Amino acid sequence: MNTVVITGAASGMGLEATELFLSRKWNVVMADFDDVNGVKIAKKLSDLFPGQVYFHKTDVSNDKSVANLFDASIKQFKTIDSVINNAGIFVKGALHEVQEDAWDRIMNIDVKSIYLMTKYFVPAMIEQQHGSIVNTASISGITGDYNMAAYSAAKGAVVNLVRSMALDYGKYNIRVNNIVPGPTNTALFQNNPQSVIDGFKNASPIGRLTEPEDIARMMFLLASDEGKSITGQNIQVNTGFGIYSSQPVQ
């Protein structure tokens, strides 16, 4: 049975991915800083998928915490076949409005976390001569957005990092890819006013938001042998956001 480690696994896209991988008979290590919800969710999932799920409280921006996650994951499931770097945060504001601690925090959680997860998990993948890594990027790392300077900078780093990782680790039969979501219909997104939600829907050429399960299905494809020929890619799953040049209709 294959094993995947998913960060940010206790909510949103990470939780959707957790449930999908379990349903497809993978072991899942749920890594999340929110241990209250994480433990509760893992217990419920363990009742449905006995022996397949393990929760570990993790600060993905902290070296020791990620090292402990690796040790616990190997102890629980022996080998790791895939890592999904899904944990991330959002900081709003023009660049001069962003506080230094907020800048550091988003860079640590959205970018440094990928470095730390790679530092600890990739050597084991190199030794076993196979593995896959999937990072959650964002359409805001490819295009510019108003009042999202720090977020765009962090996700822009992730967008380019995937290429170097894929080049460096391909010789070990390790694939690395990014999923590039746009506005996604998570519980957090639903906290927006209905007018804002409708505005996002109307901005999509197909008139809807991406659903968390859409992201989860792509995560599975890229993590599994279904995507064995895909590496170094930024794959957009975002109902067409980012394809418009902003020129007026002619």
Automatic annotation (TrEMBL):
Keywords: Oxidoreductase
Domain of life: Bacteria
Pfam families linked: adh_short_C2
PROSITE patterns linked: ADH_SHORT
Stored Gene3D superfamilies: NAD(P)-binding Rossmann-like Domain
A biological process from GO: bile acid metabolic process
GO MF annotations in UniProt: oxidoreductase activity
Entry's family note: Belongs to the short-chain dehydrogenases/reductases (SDR) family.
Protein name per the record: Short chain dehydrogenase
